[in-house]
Amino acid sequence: MKNILVLGAGRSSSSLIKYLLEEAQNQDWIVTVGDTNLEMAADKVNGYAKGKAIHFDIENIAEKTKAISDAHLVISLLPPKFHPLVADTCISEGIDMLSASYVSPEIEAMHGQAVNKNVLILKECGLDPGIDHMSAMKVIDEIKEKGGKLQAFYSYTGGLLSPESDRNNPWKYKFTWNPRNVVLAGRGIAKYIENGHYKFIPYHKLFQRTQTIEVDGYGSFEGYANRNSLNYRSIYGLEDIPTLLRGTLRREGYCKAWDVFVQLGMTEDTYPLINLSEMNWNEYTRTFLPEYGTSTEEALCEYLGLDPQGEIFKKLEWLGLFSDEKIGANDGGTPADVLLSLLEKKWSLDKDDKDMIVMQHQFEYTQNGEQKRRTSSMVIIGDDSTYTAMAKTVGLPLGIAAKLVLQGKIKLKGVQVPTQKEIYQPILEELEKVGIEFKEMSD
Amino acid sequence: MKNILVLGAGRSSSSLIKYLLEEAQNQDWIVTVGDTNLEMAADKVNGYAKGKAIHFDIENIAEKTKAISDAHLVISLLPPKFHPLVADTCISEGIDMLSASYVSPEIEAMHGQAVNKNVLILKECGLDPGIDHMSAMKVIDEIKEKGGKLQAFYSYTGGLLSPESDRNNPWKYKFTWNPRNVVLAGRGIAKYIENGHYKFIPYHKLFQRTQTIEVDGYGSFEGYANRNSLNYRSIYGLEDIPTLLRGTLRREGYCKAWDVFVQLGMTEDTYPLINLSEMNWNEYTRTFLPEYGTSTEEALCEYLGLDPQGEIFKKLEWLGLFSDEKIGANDGGTPADVLLSLLEKKWSLDKDDKDMIVMQHQFEYTQNGEQKRRTSSMVIIGDDSTYTAMAKTVGLPLGIAAKLVLQGKIKLKGVQVPTQKEIYQPILEELEKVGIEFKEMSD
Fold this sequence. Notes:
2 copies of one chain form a homodimer.
Chain A: E1 2-7, H1 14-24, E2 29-35, H2 38-45, E3 51-55, H3 61-69, E4 73-76, H4 83-93, E5 96-99, H5 105-108, H6 111-116, E6 120-122, H7 131-145, E7 149-161, H8 179-183, E8 189-194, E9 197-202, H9 203-206, E10 211-215, E11 219-225, H10 232-235, E12 243-251, H11 254-264, H12 281-286, H13 296-304, H14 311-319, H15 335-346, E13 355-367, E14 370-381, H16 389-406, E15 414-416, H17 421-433, E16 439-442
Parallel strand pairs in A: 1-2, 1-4, 2-3, 4-5, 5-6, 6-15, 7-12
Antiparallel strand pairs in A: 7-13, 8-9, 10-11, 11-12, 13-14, 14-16
């Protein structure tokens, strides 16, 4: 009987735990779910004979050592800062560990120890990072094997609303993950390479420099550049590629409207606003505008050159940026805090809303002197508000990896990410069986 | 015989030391100049019987205590971080101290001790802060004394080039103080109040939201908002004023061209560029642009909507932003570092260049039910590259304050800034005699 220990029973664990419990019915497994909230852990395994819930507090060393040494495999969904604490015990106890978060320098430094102890620490095995690595490397390796030379690689991922849920919402967007991160997205500098030239986009230009992406059957999206695409040259073995850009997807029209917040300074998070407790939304908006002696609506259109009848203005109005309703915020909030509180009213998922994950890779390469192009696209729609597309795409790669590791089908040791064929090929094959698949087009 | 100790013999000390040495000929004074560079200190007092140079290292406690206890008054031109060390000894030795830099929280906390020891610590007594406080408070107090109620106060200061030195330079600007601070100017958020509404300008809009300022006989300037105008409500006793904005002056046309650097991201100072050692200026510029498949010049005009025949583009071209000359920078430099190195080639003062300080206050107020407006403007041109307008306007208020303190004409004790009539009135009267005067206009 093999014991799989899942650490963390939060929202993103639903699909992973369900997958493991259902597989356990045909395998010699038990699935132990540990959380500081025992009730939440119990709820996740409820009704499954092979499920077990335990109290688990990462900062309680005895509890940690006991739970991990009782396991044959550990999957950590804890916040990334706790992963070194888990990995450390896994290595000393000789237990393989899987997670969906990025390899930190601290984890990277554990590679030698893990190899010595014959332990696999498989990281970045969720959606992004995770499925992005696997699906990109599959095509990159295929192109290379056929003697192709990659000229350009663009890769976009977005956590969005399904088409059936985005009606009556001009932004066609709601929060499907950490709302605060959405409001602060893109702060800093976006770095990529194009035609052999390094490119740097400052934050205030990021949402203006978007690409349009078409996904067969799902229409148009737009992508803005992620913080650092340059790292991916070494991760994907594409050191000499002239063009490499990774980006985040939104529905068409979103970025131009979001850029209004950026231009106004509403996404600033470094200073507190004044008199917030007395302010209404119209006054909040006016704070970021010069005084034109006109209405706030007219001043905004004048300031940023917006069409008062246009789509951008409509999106802003729909949010309530010009209303005389009190903000209801306490003094001390930043512009971003206040904007977040407005968006949370309008962009929180309703019970019936379904989310949607979209990923598209674009490859441009030369083969036998010919210019070629290939795209590989995935669209996953959530089942409901528990088994969301996000939970499925983050959890199922981990669940499948767990099965493959326990079955001895992944033999690599040390700190790994799923860019190697030995890992990505069997995981992608299994993902296809549970409906997570890519459609390829070439010309 | 009274001994005035001047700490620091750097560039900005020239006018102060000359003023003190010349006054000393008619007063019972000697002037001691202390610097870690004894030669530089000696050079400043050379030829004056009442001048004396000493080695002074603020971090040598014995040297510090000796020099200060030998003095009857200390004027510190040291970097602001050292002022608490000077003030501390001045207070324990019972010696008055003057300086041109801002009151820090550390200095502010010394007020009670200074009062107990009957010591004056007069801060912010240079140009900005200094002359700005004095000249503004003079008018503010006059308006209040006549029963006027201030509605708006705008105050602008700029360190610029004199008209005779700004020909053949389309920017009409050179560095007359710390060049790095000029390149990084405005980072953060500018805060002010207008018509009773708090206003916050993010950095990427700062150089677009300028005011035009006319100075009689000197033409048009433009002002961009300083970081925090709101503080000045309490400093100037204008807690209820609906509009208060302080700003920095540049020659007309400067800000729109500078904004190109801001929009491109060339003033970013938070990340290193890549491949700098191999890059030429054209490639540097291209780094901040999308790839349009055109020349860098065309791409820039397309990207930011610039007229290739226009004044903005001419300014950029004049700097050499499109040249194929190597940058000659080491890897690891930020965009701002590289921009600075370009500007230093073109914006360093020549021997014959003269600088110019421009300050203008604008007051709008009601008096007996009438709307009134007053402006108060000062223009000071440097004599040469030693007795610059900057050195005069920073140094002479300190020199005059020193004379008034030694003559017993300023009796205030504790930590003070020159916003009180007892201080500003005699200083402004003396400044007028040495040619530092304001012209007033009202309507």
